[in-house]
Amino acid sequence: MQALVIVAHGSHLNPASSTPTYAHADTIRESGAFDEVREAFWKEEPSFRDALRTVESEEVFVVPLFISEGYFTEEVIPRELRLDEWDPDLWESDGTSASQATLYAEDVDKTIHYCGPVGTHDAMSDVIVKRAESVTEDPDVGEGFGLSVVGHGTERNENSAKAIEYHADRIRDMGRFDEVKALYMDEEPEVDDVTDYFESEDVVVVPLFVADGYHTQEDIPEDMGLTDDYRTGWDTPAAVDGHRIWYAGAVGTEDFMADVILERAAEAGADIRDALEKVREATGGVPASGD
């Protein structure tokens, strides 16, 4: 038997924070890829600490629904799961290339395949593009448009920016959009000044966040000038400084995220047979870039 455990941050204050996690878990559960599919959270129940005790399978694939490698994926999650053999060097990553590490959880007598976060997987570039298609309602969006990939950014963890830049570079190399820029909330270049960085009249803004919450639904719309008060909403597209801003909301709410979770597990050795194709059919996904 094999199980999938999707671990996410969650929130005590925003109940919608866990909604994408449950939605993607349901999609994968319905595909029959695993004997068991479970969700676990840092700020909600069920907790990380109890996650491995909720499954009966001897082989467990743990996929972090996080954007970047760093404090949570390298310290908090392994500690709470009691993965005593864990060391970040097992990922052999440069900050964006974590794959998986196979460990033994002695207290529950299970083999654990600890996967890299979904946010650094190559398929996330395709999810970002899907968000652009969704918000513009144009499956061919690209020509005449700029695209901004927005991250939190922090001086405390350089990997936070690495993930954003990685996907901006990959999408730029696709040659689909006229311009592609990586912008941030807490470091330069800042999303507040989004119109200063684009010549394109139409700009799609996609936040590389797992769930819609305070930052994506309050801070970023107000900072970009889409609205003076997030509670009154904003137009899509919104006119800002001679540009039309198409604000897509958190990338993690895109249905195609379920594909990325499965890709992570499959690369760690999960036997998912034809389940990935079923999920792609259900989510409208496409093979990851480079497949």
Q: What does this molecule look like?
A:
The chain is α/β, with parallel strands linked by helices and 291 residues long. It folds into two domains: 2-120 and 254-283, Rossmann fold; 124-253, Rossmann fold, CATH 3.40.50.1400. Helices cover 31% and strands 20% of the residues. It has eight helices and ten strands. It has helices spanning 19-31, 48-51, 71-80, 123-136, 158-174, 214-224, 257-267, 275-283, and strands at residues 2-8, 36-41, 59-64, 100-105, 110-115, 145-151, 179-184, 202-207, 238-240, 243-247. The strands form two sheets. It has a five-stranded mixed beta sheet, with helices on both faces. A five-stranded mixed beta sheet has the order 7-6-8-10-9, with helices on both faces. Helix 1 (19-31) crosses helix 7 (257-267), helix 4 (123-136) packs across helix 5 (158-174) and helix 7 (257-267) runs antiparallel to helix 8 (275-283). The longest helix has 17 residues, at 158-174. The two termini are 28 Å apart. The mean pLDDT is 92.
CATH topology category name of the largest domain: Rossmann fold
Work out the helicity level: 25-40%
- List the total number of helices: 8
Strand content of the residues, in percent?
Answer: 15-25%
Strand order of the largest sheet: 2-1-3-5-4
CATH architecture of the largest domain: 3-Layer(aba) Sandwich
The gross shape turns out to be globular
Under CATH at level 1, the class of the largest domain stands as: Alpha Beta
Average pLDDT figure: 92
* Series of H and E elements: EHEHEHEEHEHEEHEEHH
Domain module tally? 2
Rg: 19 Å
The largest pleated sheet is described as: 5 strands, mixed
Category by helix and strand content: alpha/beta
